[in-house]
Design goal:
The complex is a heterodimer of chains A (about 850) and B (about 500).
Chain A: H1 36-47, H2 67-72, H3 89-95, H4 108-119, H5 140-143, H6 168-179, H7 190-202, H8 208-216, H9 222-231, H10 235-248, H11 267-278, H12 283-292, H13 306-314, H14 331-350, H15 369-379, E1 395-397, H16 401-437, H17 442-453, H18 461-469, H19 485-503, E2 510-512, E3 524-527, E4 535-539, H20 567-575, H21 581-596, H22 617-629, H23 634-642, H24 655-661, E5 673-674, H25 677-688, E6 702-704, E7 710-712, H26 732-736, H27 755-763, H28 765-782, H29 793-799, H30 801-812, H31 818-836, H32 840-843, H33 845-862, H34 864-867, E8 868-869
Antiparallel strand pairs in A: 1-2, 3-4, 5-8, 6-7
Helix pairs in contact in A: 1-4, 7-8, 7-9, 9-23, 10-11, 12-13, 12-20, 16-17, 16-19, 17-18, 21-22, 25-28, 25-30, 28-30, 28-33, 29-31, 30-33, 31-33
Chain B: H1 28-35, H2 44-50, E1 82-87, H3 94-97, H4 102-106, E2 135-138, E3 143-146, H5 150-154, E4 159-165, H6 172-181, H7 192-200, E5 210-213, E6 239-241, H8 260-279, H9 284-306, H10 314-319, H11 325-342, E7 347-350, H12 363-387, E8 394-399, E9 403-404, E10 419-420, E11 424-429, E12 437-439, E13 441-442, E14 449-451, H13 456-466, E15 476-478, E16 481-483
Parallel strand pairs in B: 1-7, 1-8, 4-12, 5-6, 5-7
Antiparallel strand pairs in B: 2-3, 4-11, 8-11, 9-10, 13-14, 15-16
The chains are: A mainly alpha (about 850), B alpha/beta (about 500).
Chain lengths: ~850, ~500
């Protein structure tokens, strides 16, 4: 079915076949002569080059970037005597612990390698040039790191059991397993598969009816049909949108300060993501619009047609960073927003945290400090600390001229009505005053009337004193009703009608966007040691140098065809060219992780030397190339994964697999995975039958309950995606099940198992209420069972058998077997017996049956079968 | 339930060494049998053995990763069986608190001649800043302690002060991760508490073995990863109590559900889970969740009791400073820590929020303030443990991840001190450390540790030794690699501080 080829491909050197997942520098095989460029420089880079090579001037005049300059030496003489490890100063200093001055010392095995290299005559892989430009530069060896190599489309490896290869990805996985003497696990059964697929693609369970229909479907294409049905469900975008929002660091508040101000329009970006994924927007477009959607929309941003609104909304991605600049902020907090934005962009799109290079050249990866600021220069025209937009200045109004005209028209109407009201009010007060004055001595009346009629600010001290003595003549609109109820009522009705007029105005709606002022081209400077108060040399916008050949990574400073600089647009186009080594690998790795529980690279936000190596580097590259070449369709990617043999494997552990690969990195089975926080809550709502599927719109508010725990206001049973994500108010249920708190963003979820989760499921108001709803629904659905109020508990339990059956189907999407039905009856009998002895309000037949049934439902909702997908 | 057994039938519990809680009238087992709480019988170890999940208990120690909390014997007879760590992250200024430097006082205001390792180069200065506070020789031992810590002065003869700590890194995160996980800057490794729990299991079936008491001001740097179990199963991660009441959310069921009904519920749930587990044998996360329900059920009883400080006398309340709004919060947590250890919790760690020891500026006000908040409760904890005979087997640790520089940061009255991972102090008490000593030295101005330098790896190896564990033999195999707390890095047992 697929062309067979040798494995491993000879064009991918360095693909280790032994199960070594994470190796650092210094792994030169013992029988090999180390070379400077491949083996030695990475050690020096990590420990020495910051001062002896990267700095200007070099510390002690010593430059360790080349063997040539080491031989030349510095203030203390030659650093290196080729062939003589004993007399080489650099080794002596390392051995004595004098160097490096930090306690992050050179490791013994690294020192041994250095010694071996010196003893071998300090060889280099190639002749060194006489002079090299300042800085650490990037060596050919560093460019050879797996993540930076050009994307490459390997041919599919040969396998000994080709019948197990349903999709290309199977060939890569199976070849690797076979190399270890292993193979795939058998396929999971159909009921397991539909549950797994529903949670994977929708984050929700299938109904028991859907399971039955699929299990019984005789169509040979039943599985393909199911996958298509799930992919076309609107719930799909909600599930996969949540994954992307993790990477984007989505929150409904700004964080960074104690106030944690709300971002009332952030949800529009969330909705945009969900809609884009549901529409299977090509991913190149999806990413391009998030990075530069504003540059695709003509300025000024007014009178916006729908597609322009969408593109601007997409830039909400670049407004997700925590932000303490409400009211403008200081340089520190503005620069913090910029560095957090770069952190989000780089970890989500590049699989790298470039933050290390903010202060100095990266110690392990070939990311010079200048690269960090070149990336920053891409964003600087829009994120300029010297021309900062405070949060409320980032809003684009969606008002059209028609809206404005309509609004003005209504306002004029309201103003006219107000005038009428004021006149009537003045008349009524004057009349009331005349009447009131009669109650005062005649001699005072004129004086009093004048004082009362004089506007408050214009009254003389005598008038003020007079009115203080006789306050009843000081009639304000607020107290008019005490003098003339009828007039006050009339005025109130008039006031209400004015409010009603104004309420007819179109509501001004906003987007939270990132835009660039036209023609704004600020300078970007390298900050010495990352300190914004110490700007140094200027840098031009560019992609990371290591992602392209020399001189090829620069970006235009200003695109003359656009009002804006066009820098983000140019970078976005470069990233989505289909051959960007980091973007391609980073995004397919992320999607893979969501399907299989862990990425091909276990550290999705760190593809550098401190991260993990890919378990299947060829597969990773193949996926990245395939995604781009086939039109960037994420749904196609899902289809390929779900139709693979690998994804359909059973999840049971196998001893032979565990012996070699207990963490299942080779995917010799599917993992048993706990549902994510949102999916646990959503599944509970679905099982209870209370889930409100209404999509989109402003975030569902979260409040603090009496105990100070953060809960959903009015317990609205909307899907968890729609709940407000205020950084300082994490919903207790979700946080307990490891929902991220969004300091910056979340590159992968953790899955803890702690007693707090158990207590939540045992005792929380939320779970108890949902269990009760589920019980009452199942009892109602089962219909009335003829059982006397005073029937023995066992008979009551039998009468609930049909409800039990339904509860089982709701919770587990399958019917209970006989043993489970019997155990449930025993359980209910026991509970009903206890409940009969309880307080009178509990002991009524209907109440006790409902409570016993609720307890049964609660245990189903708390069980491993419910919380895990196999 | 077929697993009903008497609570005392849980098999070998590793009670090879004397237990440390004298005078507790109602012991753990007694407590459970008194309440007749059926779930007490569902000991995880029993359960796992029935399921064939537990390796033969007779197997030598540390052969394979354990996946349970059964109490285990250490390599050697232990001195400490529990630890309370008062983690003072942020970088307490040792030259103002615990490490007097006459030369620094002399050179106050002058430029330092040596090299300084700064964190914030832009605010760097070489001008030495003498301590504004006086030191006094305290107790029989004569250990010099600053007037900022009057209560610590009073227990000088009970503590082992280490003045020569050294991480080599000035950054908070780098050094915090070093202290917790064994490698500078590397996140995601099991923490000291995880290693102890993994190695020794739990002495309490009613409470998590590893508990964390966080500050109402918020989480420390790195948040919850300060008590993560890294690559070990989640069974070994720390359980954080809320900073305010209710300290454990959802601890108590509504009255109608409490008692027999909830017991029935949990027994039914357990049978569901075990049936499910038969389809997924050896799945650690599923087993851990079964255990988490049992723990939760027992916590309902024992945690309520452990957290109820109203059971303590008025004198104890005063000792910890609960009568003073300044010390009340931290004092309450110290007292809770003692009550937890009393009930068999192995490792308790207290954190502070907002890095109050990170006195970059305004040290003249900031440092006394945090001392006032913590000094009395910390000293009270040592005194209280001692008077209850618990100090011998309970190791108390007080310390941050770094100290501070002898030079000034900023000018004038608002000045402070920058980070210093080159030399700083911590203190310990009880659990087999030598009382009444000051160990190690920094240089004449307090910048670098120069005599008897102790790294976090040395400290970890030493703490493990106090617990009867050999840091080189305490291994967790993860993906074919033998992992250790000290990560194969140089680590020595600091003999000089062992009693």
């Amino acid at each position: 079915m697929f062309p067979a080829n040798r494995f491993p491909s000879p064009t991918l050197p360095g693909v280790a076949l032994a199960i070594v997942w994470m190796t650092m520098a210094g792994t030169c095989p013992a029988d090999d002569i180390p070379s400077f460029e491949r083996d030695i420089r990475p050690i020096l880079r990590a420990h020495c080059l910051d001062c002896h090579g990267g700095s200007d001037p070099f510390e002690g005049n010593l430059d360790l970037r080349q063997v040539r300059s080491m031989l030349r030496g510095g203030d203390s003489g030659a650093a290196l005597v080729a062939g003589n490890a004993g007399e080489s100063l650099v080794l002596e200093r390392i051995r004595s612990g004098e160097m490096p001055p930090s306690t992050l010392k050179v490791k013994p095995e690294e020192l041994a390698l250095l010694e071996r290299w010196v003893a071998a005559g300090a060889p280099t892989a190639r002749p060194e040039p006489e002079t090299i430009p300042p800085g650490l530069g990037i060596t050919p060896e560093e460019r050879e790191w797996w993540a930076f190599r050009p994307l490459f489309s390997p041919t599919l490896p040969a396998v000994s059991r080709p019948e197990l290869v349903s999709q290309p990805i199977d060939a890569f996985l199976l070849a690797r397993l076979e190399h270890e003497g292993l193979s795939f696990s058998p396929s999971a059964d159909r009921a397991t598969l539909i549950r797994r697929a529903s949670f994977d693609l929708l984050g929700l369970p299938p109904s028991a009816e859907e399971v039955d229909a699929f299990v019984a479907d005789p169509d040979p294409a039943a599985w393909e049909k199911l996958v298509e049905r799930l992919l076309s469900s609107p719930r799909y975008g909600e599930r996969w949108g949540r994954h992307w929002l993790d990477a984007a660091g989505y929150a409904d508040s700004a964080g960074a300060t104690q106030d944690d101000p709300l971002r009332p329009y952030a949800w529009k970006f969330r909705d945009w993501v969900v809609r884009a994924l549901n529409a299977d927007m090509p991913l190149d477009r999806f990413l391009l619009e998030q990075l530069a959607g504003d540059e695709l929309v003509p300025q000024p941003h007014s009178q916006l047609p729908p597609d322009a609104i969408d593109r601007l909304t997409a830039t909400g991605f670049l407004r997700m960073a925590a932000d303490g600049t409400t009211g403008g902020g200081d340089p520190e907090s503005r620069n913090r927003v910029i560095s957090d934005t770069l952190a989000i962009v780089s970890t989500s799109l590049l699989g790298l945290s470039v933050g290390c290079a903010q202060c100095h050249d990266h110690r392990y990866d070939p990311i010079p400090q200048s690269d960090y600021y070149a990336l920053r220069a891409i964003f600087e025209p829009a994120l300029d600390p010297l021309a900062w937009k405070a949060p409320n200045e980032r809003l684009v109004s969606l008002f059209t001229d028609a809206d404005r005209a309509r609004s003005a028209e209504i306002e004029a109407e309201a103003v006219a009505a107000s005038k009428e009201l004021e006149e009537k009010q003045a008349k009524a007060i004057a009349a009331a005053l005349e009447k009131e004055l009669l109650k005062h001595p005649e001699a005072l009346r004129e004086q009093l009337g004048t004082a009362a009629r004089t506007p408050e600010q214009g009254r003389t001290p005598e008038q003020q004193q007079l009115l203080k003595e006789r306050p009843s003549v000081n009639i304000s609109p607020g107290v008019l009703y005490q003098y003339d109820q009828a007039a006050a009522d009339e005025l109130k009705a008039l006031g209400d009608s004015i409010a009603a007029i104004r309420a007819r105005k179109p509501v001004e709606d906003f987007l939270q966007v990132l835009t660039e002022p036209p023609g704004h081209l600020p300078q970007t400077r390298i900050f010495h040691r990352g300190d914004h108060r110490q700007p140094k040399g200027e840098v031009a916008p560019a992609d990371l140098e290591v992602t392209g050949s020399e001189g090829e990574t620069g970006l235009p400073n200003d695109d003359s065809s656009l009002p804006t600089s066009g820098r983000r647009l140019a970078w976005a186009r470069r990233l989505t060219s289909g051959r960007h080594p980091l973007l391609g690998r980073a995004i397919v790795n992320r999607f893979w992780m969501h399907h299989f529980g862990r990425g091909i690279v276990g550290t999705p936000a760190d593809f550098g030397r401190l991260g993990e190596r890919p378990t299947h580097p060829e597969l990773l590259d193949w996926l990245a190339v395939d995604l781009a070449d086939s039109g960037w369709s994420l749904k196609r990617f899902h289809r390929m994964v779900l139709l693979s043999t690998a994804w359909q494997q059973a999840s049971a552990r196998r001893p032979e697999l565990d012996a070699i690969d207990a963490d299942n990195r080779l995917v010799g089975r599917m993992p048993v995975r706990r549902l994510e926080a949102e999916a646990v809550r959503d599944r509970i709502l679905a099982a209870a039958g209370t889930l409100d599927p209404t999509p989109f719109g402003p975030a569902v508010p979260v409040i603090a309950d009496e105990a100070g725990e953060f809960v959903v206001k009015d317990s609205l049973p909307r899907r968890s995606l729609w709940l407000q994500q205020r950084r300082s108010m994490p919903v207790q249920f979700l946080a307990t099940f490891d929902a991220p708190s969004m300091q910056t963003n979340c590159d992968r979820r953790t899955h803890s198992t702690v007693a707090g989760q158990a207590l939540l499921l045992m005792n929380s108001d939320f779970v108890l209420r949902q269990a009760r709803s589920m019980a009452d629904t199942t009892i109602a659905e089962a219909g009335s069972q003829a059982v006397a109020d005073d029937a023995p508990p066992a008979d009551e339990a039998i009468a609930l058998a049909s409800a039990v059956h339904r509860a089982w189907r709701r919770a587990f999407n399958r019917a209970p077997d006989e043993e489970e039905q019997a155990a449930s009856a025993t359980f209910l009998t026991d509970e009903l017996t206890i409940l009969r002895g309880g307080a009178p309000e509990i002991a009524t037949p209907a109440e006790r049956r409902s409570r016993a049934m609720a307890n049964l439902c609660q245990q189903l909702l708390s069980s491993n079968e419910f919380l895990y997908v196999d | 339930m077929s697993t009903e057994q008497s609570p005392d039938s849980s098999g070998d519990r590793g009670d090879r060494y004397p237990r440390r809680i004298p005078g507790q009238s109602l012991g753990r087992r007694g407590f459970l049998s008194h309440t007749g709480f059926g779930l007490g019988a569902l000991a995880l170890a029993d359960l796992l053995r029935q399921e064939g999940l537990l390796a033969n208990p007779a197997k030598p120690q540390f052969e394979a990763p354990f996946n349970d909390l059964q109490a285990r014997a250490p390599h050697f007879p232990p001195r400490a069986t529990a630890m309370i760590s008062l983690f003072m992250h942020g970088g307490p200024a040792h030259m103002d608190l615990t490490d007097p430097k006459p030369q620094l006082q002399k050179l106050d205001g002058m430029d330092y001649g040596g090299e300084v390792a700064y964190s914030f180069v832009n605010r760097a200065s070489k001008r030495l800043l003498g301590s504004p506070w006086k030191f006094t020789a305290c107790g029989q031992s004569g250990t010099q302690i600053s007037e900022l810590l009057p209560n610590l002065q009073r227990i000088a003869d009970d503590i082992c002060l280490v003045r020569s700590m050294h991480t080599g890194h000035n950054g908070h995160e780098v050094s915090i991760r070093y202290f917790h996980g064994g490698i500078p800057a590397v996140l995601g490794r099991p923490t000291l508490g995880s290693w102890l729990t993994y190695a020794l299991g739990s002495e309490s079936r009613d409470l998590p073995s590893y508990m964390v008491l966080v500050d109402p001001e918020g989480h420390p740097v790195d948040g919850v990863t300060n008590w993560s179990s890294g690559f070990m199963p989640p069974l070994f991660q720390g359980t954080a109590l809320r900073a305010k009441e209710p300290r454990i959310p959802n601890l108590v069921p509504p009255p109608w559900l409490a008692g027999p009904l909830q017991n029935k519920n949990l027994a039914f749930l357990d049978s569901l889970n075990r049936r499910h587990g038969q389809r997924h044998p050896r799945e650690p996360d599923l087993d851990a969740r079964i255990a988490s329900y049992e723990l939760a059920a027992r916590m309902q009883l024992s945690a309520t009791d452990a957290l109820d400080i109203s059971q303590e006398t008025a004198a104890t309340h005063r000792l910890y400073g609960l009568d003073d709004p300044v010390t009340k919060e931290y004092g309450t947590r110290c007292l809770i820590a003692r009550r937890l250890v009393e009930r068999g919790v192995r490792f308790v760690q207290l954190f502070l929020g907002g890095q109050p020891w990170d006195n970059h500026s305004n040290i003249r006000e900031g440092l006394p303030a945090i001392c006032r908040r913590t000094d009395k409760p910390a000293a009270a904890l040592v005194q209280d443990l001692k008077s209850r005979g618990m100090l011998d087997t309970t190791l108390v640790h007080w310390g941050g991840e770094i100290g501070r520089l002898p030079v000034t940061e900023g000018e004038g009255s608002g000045c402070g001190r920058d980070h210093n991972g080159q030399g700083f102090s911590i203190w310990m008490a009880g659990g087999g450390v030598k009382p009444g000593i000051a160990f190690g030295e920094t240089d004449e101005v307090g910048h670098r540790a120069v005599t008897d330098v102790v790294t976090p790896n040395d400290w970890q190896a030493t703490v493990l030794r106090l617990f009867g564990l050999d840091h080189e033999r305490l291994v967790y195999r993860h993906d074919g690699v033998e992992q250790r707390l000290t990560a194969g890095r140089p680590a020595r047992i600091v003999d000089g501080i062992l009693a």
